[in-house]
């Protein structure tokens, strides 16, 4: 969300900022991935969370590894929310949160052992994001990137048409594995986020937030509320055909 002066973007940020998560994800799901990766990482890994939002991932990473997590997001509101949450959790000394463009990071090459990014790579395009982030990882380092993915080869027309307009580059899981390989990674594992986790951790709280904002006399907010309600309704109908997949990738 690069331009916070835009009314639509400002409304999106206002909708999401108080939430624990700004996109689909789940603590238990993420922890299972980290437990599988931990034996393959240094004892004190260099870790970054890109597109961190208000910090659900960064706080989990800081608590899990007990080391400094670099967290970046283009939204100053989200970064400030993360800093406040880190202080409240006693993790502020471990969370280095800054407002930056995750597509233009001037960080040294091979400066990360683990790169984490949940529900954010689509802003750059999945393959483009992986290619841009590849030099940041040490050879043998890992990227864990969740991406909206088709689960079926022939999704129903209503879902296909909506996402073709909203995210034309959205690919199937096999297509995304191929994109990862082209970007310089091997695929260590993939794990789908369950539809139940979407509801419990994201859409449930988001729906309650929509209820609080639905009657606002603000054209941009009304647009955002209506669009988000349509997104939720689409997922209710067609969650068997698409969702978020976590791609656990090793830098070649």
In angstroms, what separates the terminal alpha carbons?
30 Å
Report helical residue fraction. Answer: 40-55%
Please work out how many helical segments DSSP would assign.
Answer: 9
Whole-number mean pLDDT? 95
Radius of gyration: 18 Å
List segments where confidence is low: pLDDT < 50 over at least 5 consecutive residues.
none
Beta-strand share of residues: 15-25%
Mind summarizing the main beta sheet?
Answer: 8 strands, mixed
Along the chain, the helix and strand elements come as HHEHEHEEHEHEHEHHE
Structural shape: globular
Counting helices, strands and paired strands, the structural category is alpha/beta
Number of strands: 8
Characterization of the model:
The protein is an alpha/beta fold and 252 residues long. Helix content is 44%, strand content 21%. The protein has nine helices and eight strands. Strands 1, 2, 3, 4, 5, 6, 7 and 8 form an eight-stranded mixed sheet that branches. The longest helix has 20 residues, at 219-238. The mean pLDDT is 95.
What's the short version?
The protein has 252 residues and is an alpha/beta fold. It has helices at 7-16, 27-37, 56-65, 76-88, 126-133, 157-166, 173-182, 195-213, 219-238, and strands spanning 47-50, 69-73, 95-99, 112-117, 137-150, 171-172, 185-192, 242-251.
Task: Supply database-style keywords.
252 residues, 9 helices, single chain, eight-stranded mixed sheet, globular, 44% helix, alpha/beta
